[in-house]
Structure prediction request, 1356 residues.
Amino acid sequence: MSDLRLYSIWRNPQQRLAALAVLALVDGYLGVAFNSGLISRSGILSGQLRWLALSVELMAGGIAIMRLLVGRSPKKWKALTVVITPVALTIYTLLVLELLLSSLGRSATMNFNLTSLWSSGLYWAAVYLSVAIGLTLTYKVQRYANFAQAELMLLGGYVALLLMWSDRFFQVSDGPKDDSINWSLLITAVISAFVITGLTGLFVDRIVYKRLRNKLAKPQVMMIASLGVAMILRALLYMRFSAQSFRFVPDRDWRLGTSKFDIATERFQLTLGERVSEPIFQALETSTPFGFTYPKIALIVGVFTSVVLLVLLLHRTRLGSQMRAVADNPDLAASSGIHIERVHGITAFLSAGITGLGGSLLVAVLPMNPELGLQLLLPAFAVIVLGTIGSVPGAIFGALVVGAVRAASEPFLIGAGNALDRPTASGLAEVMPFVFLVGVLLFIPQGAGHAFHQWNIRRVRQKRSDQETSIDNRNRWEDFSTNVGAKLSRLTEQIGVLVDSGIAKCSEIFDVASNRIGEIYRSASPSVGRLSGLILSPIESIWNSTKQRAVTAFRLNNIDRETERGSWIAFWIFLALLVLVVFILPSVSNLTKTLQIARILTLVSIFGLMAFSLNLHTGITGMTNFGVIFFVGVGAVTVGLLAAPAETNGYGWSPWAAVLVAVLISGAAGWLLVAPTARLRMDYFAIVTISLGEMLRIFLQAEPLLRAGTVTSAMGISNYSRPLEGWWKSGPSETVGDILFLGGPAPYVALLAIMCLVVVVAVWYLLDTILDSPWGRILRSIREDEQVSQHHGHNILTHKAASLALGAAIAGLAGALWAWLNASIFPDFMSPVRSTFLVWAAFIVGGRANNRGMVIGAFLIVIVDFFFNVLVVSRGNSSQIFHGLVKFMDSVFEWMMVDLGGLIWSSRSITEAFPKQITVELSHLKVALVGAVILIALILSAKGLLPEIPRRPSRPSKTETDQSVSGSGAS
Amino acid sequence: MKSTRTFTVLLAVMVLSLVLACSGDDQEKDIKIGLLSPQTGPISQFSPGFEAAADVAIEELNAENEDYTFELIIGDSGCDGTQAATAAQSLIDSGVSVIIGAACSGATLGAIAVAAPAGIPMVSYASTSPAITTADDGGNLFRVVPSDAQQAVALSDVMAGQGVSNPAVLYMTNEYGSGLGDNFESAWSGNVCTRVGYDPTEGSYDASTLAQAVVDGGCDSVVLMSYDIDGAAILEALASQGFSGSTFGADGLADAALEESVTDVAALNGLVATKPRSGEGSSVKANFESAYAAAGGADGAIYTHETYDAIMLAAAAIMDGGDDLAAAIKSTGTSYVGASGIHTFDAAGDVLGTGYEVCEFDVSGSTVNFACPQNWTQNGGVASN
Prediction:
C-alpha cells in the first residue's frame, strides 16, 4: 500500500519535485546545523566545496518549494505573489546565510545607507534605461533587437565632447572656478546629441534595415545586421576618437567636490551569523549627509524626462497612435493609410535620439571610450525583458527595479563576501540584474509588463462584476463605503479634469512638435536618400554585376543551392576559395606556416563545433540560444580545473577523463536549463542564455574555487595537462618536424589541429545521422509549430531538453578544445563579442539549419580575422605590400579628419585624440571590415551562403536515391 | 561593367603582391619588433599610452644605432588569449625577432603558446599574474613588471608608519588588483575595516557606492589597488562623501599626471602612493618621461616605463648578437638599469623589484605638489631619500 502511494507521488511531477525539495531542505539543514546528513557525511566533498554544496542544496530546495507554492496559488493572488516572491526569496537567502555563518562561527555586517541606496538605484536605472528605451522602441515598432543601440549612446557622448572641444564652448568648459554654473554648453550638447544621433539612426535605417525589411528578412537576420552595424560604428568611433577615454565637463564648477546636494540620510546595520552584543538589525546614528553630485542628477533628470515625454508622445498624439498601429499590425496600418516607412523612419530617429541624449549626459559622469557601450548593452537587455519586450512603460519599470536591485545588492555582497573570505563577491553586483531576471522569469515567464497587463484586465473585470452585484445586496457598510467612494471619486474626477487639461495641452504641443519632426523628416529624407544613394550606388553596381555573373555561372552549371547536390557543390567551391586564402596568407618559414595553418584549422574546428551546437538549438529546434559561450565556458572551466595539478587547487585528473566529464557536465547543464525556460518566449530564452554566460564570466573573476594552476591561486586557470602532450614531445614531434622540413620539432598545436579535425568530422557525421532520423524531423516540427507537434503526441519538453543537452555537450567539447589551444583560461575569453556574437554571425552568414553552412561560416569568420590581420601588421612592416598603402590611407584619413572634418569640428578635437600625428588605427579598420563583410553577406543573401535544404517526405520510388545522397552527404 | 574589371584587376594585384610579399627577403640589419597592444577589449583605453612609449623607444633606438633600422609592428591583443595568439601569429608571419607584450596575463599566456614553438621570445610589460612564472614557455617568456608581493609589503609598511589602524581595501577584480589585494592582506598585520572588489571597466562600477562603503564602514583610511582613471573617480567620490581619513595607492596613482584625471584637484590632497624605484643616479627615467611628454603621450597611462624598458632591453639583446635570443635577453637583463627600475631576470624570467618610492600629493588651492621624499627597500624598510 505504502509502496503504491510512494509510487504515485513519484509519478506526479509536482509531488515528485516537492518531495525532492523537502528532502534537500532537510538534508541541507542537517548538514549546516549538525554536520550530518547526506552531503556532510558522505565525505565526497570537503572544506569550502562542502559549504558551497550545502548552500546550493538549501537554496535549490527553497526555490523549488516557493515555485510550487506560486504555481498552486489561486489566480486572484497572482499579482500579489509577483510582489511578494522577490521579497520572500531575499529573506530566505538571508536566512540561509545566517545559518551558514552561525555554523561557521563568523559574522557578516551589512551597512545600508538609505539615500545612497536610492540615489545609486536611480543612477543605474537612468544609465540602463537610456539604452533600454531605444531597444524597446525599436523592438516594438520594427521587431528586432538592435545591438547597435549602445554605440548610438556612445555617439551622443562624443557629440557632447566635440562641442566641448569647439572653439566657442571650450572657454565654458575650461573656465576657472567661479561658483556659478554656465548652462549653455550642457543644453546645446544635449539637444545636438539628440538630433545628430537621431539622424544617424535614421540614416542607418535607410541604408541597412530598409533593404532587409523590403526583403522580408527574419528578425534574427535584422539582429545580426545590427551587430554588423555596431561593429562598424564602434570601429569608426575608435578611429575618430582613439581608444583614450574622455570626460565631458560642461563647466568647471560642475564637477567640484562641492558640486553636490547634501541629502539627509538614515543608516541601518544588519548583522548575520555570530552576534556578540549587536542586535540582528539596528538603526545607526547618522553622521554625514549623502552628497548627490550634479552630473548624476542631470543624467537621471534628463533620461527620465525624455522617456516620460516619449510615453506621452506614444499615447497622446496621432504620431504615437500611428506608431502603435504599425507595431500591432503593419499590414492593417498600411491599408488604413499610414505611411509605414515614414513611421519606421521616425521610430529609428526617436529611438536613436533618446539614447544619444542619455549618452551626452552619461559622459559627464563617466570617462568614456568606445568600449563602454558593451558594458551597458547586456544589462539593458535584462531591463527590457524584465519589463516585457516592446513595452515602453515596462522598460521604465524594469530599469527602476534593476537599478534598485543593483544598488541594494552591493551592501549584502560586501558584507557576505567579507565574512566568507570572498571580498571579490562585491564584483558580482554587476551580474545581479541578470540573477534577478532569471529568478523572476522562473516565476513569471512572460515578464513583469505582461503580469501587470493581466492584473489590470482582471481588475477591470472585477470592478465590473462588483458593480453588477453591488446593486442587489447593499448594507450599511456599503452605503458608508459608497459615500466615501463617491467623495473620493469626485475628488479624483476633479484631479482627472486637471490632469486631462494638462495632458491635452501637452499633446497639443506634442502634435505641433511631431508635425515639425514629420516635416523635418520629409524634407531631410530625400537628401538622406540621395546621400546614401551616392555612397552606395557604385558599390551596388559592382555588386550587382558580380552577383549577376555568379548567378549565371551557377545557373549554367545547373547548381541550385537549395538541393542536396547543389549545396554540396557550393560547399566545396566555398571551401576551396577559403583554403586558397589560407595558402596565400604570408608567412616567413615552414615552421611558422605550419603554426599558422594548424592554428587556423583548430580555430575553424572550435568555431565549427560552436556553430553546430547553435544550429542544433536555433536552426533545427528553433530555440534562440545566445549562450553558446556559457556551455563552452562550462566545458573549458571543467577541463581546466579537473586537469590542473592537485597541489595548485586543481584535481590532477587525466585530460581524457576531464574532457569526458566536461562534456557530460555541459550536457547536463543544457538538460537542466529546459525546466525553468521551457515556458519562456524565444527572445526571453535568448536573454536568459546570454545572462548565464555573463554570470559565469563574472564568477570566474570573483570565485576562488574557480582558480587553479598557480601556487597563490591567482585569477585564471593554467598549467593543466593536455592530451598526448607528453607523448608528442617525447618523440613524434621530432619525426613529424623532419618530415615537414620544419628544422625542429613540430609544435603541439599541429597535433591538436589533427585531433580537432577528427572531432569535427565525427560530430558532423553524428549530427547529420541524428538529424536524418525521425528525431530530427520531430525537432524541425517543433521549430515549425510547437502546438501541432504536441498535438501529434510528442513530448515537447523532453525533445527540447534532449536537443539542448546534445548541443550543450558539443559546445562543451568545443570549450575543451579551446582550453587546450589557449593553454590557460582567463575570464576575458568569455566575452560574448569574441565568441557568441561571432558564432551567430557564422550561423546566419553560413546558412541556418545547414551544417555545411556552419563549417563555411566558421571558416569565413576565422579567415577574415587572419586576412585582415595582415593589414593590421602592415604599418610597421616595410617588406609587406600593404605598407605603402597604409601611408596612402593615412593621408586620406588625415584629409578627412582635417580638411573635411575640420568643417564640422575644431582642431582641438583632433589634437585631443591624436596628440602627435593622425594615423588610421588599422585594428579598428579591421573590425569595421569584418562588420561590413557580415552586412554585405546578409544583404546579398538573407538565407545565408548555404541555405537550408527543404525536406519533403520522399516518394517510395525515390527512397533509394535519397538515401544514397544523404549517406554520401554524411560521410 | 568597367568598374567590375578594375575591381578584378585590383584584386588580382593585391593577391599577387601578397604572394610576392611572402617571398621577399629581409634586409640584414632590419630588425622588426612586435608589440601586442590591447587596442580593443576591456583595457583599450590604455593602449595609446603603451604605443606612445613604444614609439619613444623605437625612435631612440634608431637615433642611437646607425647600423640598424628598427621597425615596430603592432598587433591587437584584445586583452584575450585567443585574439592575442592570432595577433602573435600575424606578427611572427611578418618576421619579428621578438614580441613585446602582452598586457593582460591571459593574452600573454595565449600568445606564448604560439611564440614559444616558433622560437620567438616574448617580454611582457604589464602581466602581473603568477601564472606567467609557471607557464610552459621553454625559457622564452620574460617580464619586466615585478611581482605584486613586494609592493604589498611596502604599502603595508608605509601605512603602518603613518599610524593607520583600520583601512578599507578597495581593489579591482582583475589579476593585478586582486593579486595586489590578496598580497596586501597577508602582509598587513592589523585589522582590515572592509574589503571591496570592483570591475574597473567603466559602466560596471559606481564610484560613489564604493566610497559610501568606506564611509559607512567607519574606516580610518582607504587603500586603492586601482588604475589611474578609476582610482581618480573613487578619490573624487570619497571627497564628495566628505571622507576625511588618509588615502593610499600604488603604481598608477603614484604619478604627477594623476592630476589630469580629476576635475577637482582637491581630491588628491594627502594621497600617499608607492611605485617601483628607478636606479640610483640614473637619468633613464627622467629622459624617458620627457621624451614621452614631448611625443604627446596619453595622460593617465599605465606601465609606459615598463613598455619602454621591455623594448630597449630586447633591442640591446638583439644587437648583442648570438643565435639564441632568449639567452641573450636573459643575460642582458642582469642589473639592467631601466626607466621602471633595475631589472634582473631570475630563472623563470621574472624580475625582482629593487624597492619602491613613496610619493605624496600636497594640494593647496589649485597647485599640486607631487614629491617622493621616501623610499622602501626589502631590508631597510621605509627611509628618507
Summary: Chain B touches chain A through 116 residues (CB under 8 Å). The first strand of chain B starts at residue 30 and ends at 37. Confidence is low (pLDDT under 50) at residues 18-27 of chain B.
